[in-house]
Amino acid sequence: MAKQRPKQPPKRPNAAAIPAADKGEKLHKVLANLGFGSRRKMEQWIEQGRLKLDGKVATLGDRVTAEQTVRLDDKLIAREPADQVRVLLYHKPEREVCSRSDPESRKTVFDSLPRLQSGRWISVGRLDFNTSGVLLFTTDGGLANALMHPSSSIEREYLVRVMGKVDEPMLERLKSGVELDDGPARFTDIQEGGGDGINRFFYVVLMAGRNREV
Prior knowledge:
Blueprint: E1 25-26, H1 27-33, H2 39-47, E2 51-53, E3 56-57, E4 63-64, E5 70-72, E6 75-76, E7 87-92, E8 122-124, E9 133-138, H3 141-148, E10 156-163, H4 168-176, E11 178-180, E12 183-185, E13 189-196, E14 199-206
Antiparallel strand pairs: 1-4, 2-3, 2-5, 5-6, 7-9, 8-9, 10-14, 11-12, 13-14
Helix pairs in contact: 1-2
């Protein structure tokens, strides 16, 4: 009579065999999709020890599931996804800041946006306090980061007022490139917009937005 082989205990699944979806998404990707910044910036925050997963300091490569808690600088991050992707055009007036809060209690652009039942508005770029113009907002962090990345080659056009003499060699230098504190910069196009004497207007085009570049 054949002997019955003893049953082997069930093998524990190899972590590498678990589908990536079951292990969650990379933390830096989740934060970028929530609109906190680029993936590279989120990696820097993780390296700086600013992120915690379930109370423990996060490390590069960590994945996060829907059940886990994420804290930035010890503040809980709400990760409820938007019910649908929304995109909104907003004409920013002067004297509004583009941050979510302001230490001087000035009005922010987010104060004027419609309330969302889920998700949050993410600004695609920003304008200075005393600058007016069109801003794009979305609830999709991936879309926002893609639009802001220099590789998208999206033109940004500004109408600037110049008080002072502007000659042709000066305009050519601005188009060929000038050195700023944070690196070289140039306008890809400059067109006259009216005015005379020392009070003139120009339409200028940039391919990437940097702080106070115009």
